[in-house]
Amino acid sequence: MLFKTRGIVFRTIKYGETSVIADIFTEDKGLHTFIAGGVRSAKARMPYNLFQPMTVVDMVSYFREDQEAINRLKELRAAELWTQIPFDIRRGAVALFMAEICRKSIQEAEENRDLFEYLFQTLQWLDTSPHPIANLHLHFLLRLSGLLGFQPQGEPDEDRELFFDLREGTFESVPPVHGVHLEPEETQQMLALLHVEAEFCHEVALDRKQRKALLQQLLRFYQLHVDGFTGVNTPEILEMIL
């Protein structure tokens, strides 16, 4: 059947001389894999630049209700034109990080409009915000964890020393015996980011060292709660650029 929807490109792999295979998170049917022929040729009907990570597209494909199937794209065009992400090295690096996290953690091949809308709105904010974006990737990890079903639940409390248990996803007044936890300072930083909107996440005071340490801990949190979540490559790029 012909399937028309919006999608967000997570990853693209070159295939053959002119084709590509792309993992695209669709608004109507979740994450699926698509093949597009001739997109790397001079007369391509679907420009190759539309297959860059975190591009939002309108798409038409020949579709089968089989998660393992590779569906063939018939048409593809831009649904949203980014004005800064492709040209600003910092915004581009954050978008690449988001794409890699999404590809490794989103596995559902079914409709999830809340998740699609969150990704779309975050990309819009990344593209247009006049504010610093150095904390956005941390904020993104925390909010995405909620949509994936394992967001930390707790409120900032400057009067109590709290430890965040990475295994259980809970806040404790004493460090857990297994030792896999955030220290009180890191816990307060995480809570501050968790309870602020994206447009204000730059107001959470973090220096470069603190930002790197918290990112490592949040990635560890994902590894503990997402099946098959493996090493992430883009943090090294973020560390150099942000």
How many separate domains make up the residues?
2
Tell me, what's the shape? elongated
Overall structural class, as computed from helix and strand content, comes to alpha+beta
Query: Could you say what the CATH topology of the largest domain is called?
Result: de novo design (two linked rop proteins)
**How many alpha or pi helices?**
6
Sheet with the most strands: spatial strand order? 1-2-3-5-4
Order of helices and strands: EEEEEHHHEEEHHH
* Mean pLDDT level: 93
The biggest sheet amounts to:
5 strands, mixed, barrel
CATH homologous superfamily designation of the largest domain:
Recombination protein O, C-terminal domain
Features:
5-stranded mixed beta barrel, de novo design (two linked rop proteins), 34% helix, 8 strands, 6 helices, OB fold (Dihydrolipoamide Acetyltransferase, E2P), 2 domains, elongated, 3-stranded antiparallel β-sheet, 242 residues, alpha+beta
Account of the 3D structure:
The chain is α+β, with helices and mostly antiparallel strands and 242 residues long. The protein folds into two domains: 2-78, OB fold (Dihydrolipoamide Acetyltransferase, E2P) (Beta Barrel), CATH 2.40.50; 89-241, de novo design (two linked rop proteins). Helix content is 34%, strand content 22%. It has six helices and eight strands, in the order E-E-E-E-E-H-H-H-E-E-E-H-H-H. The strands form two sheets. It has a five-stranded mixed β-barrel with strand order 1-2-3-5-4. Strands 7-6-8 form a three-stranded antiparallel beta sheet. The model has no long low-confidence stretch (mean pLDDT 93).
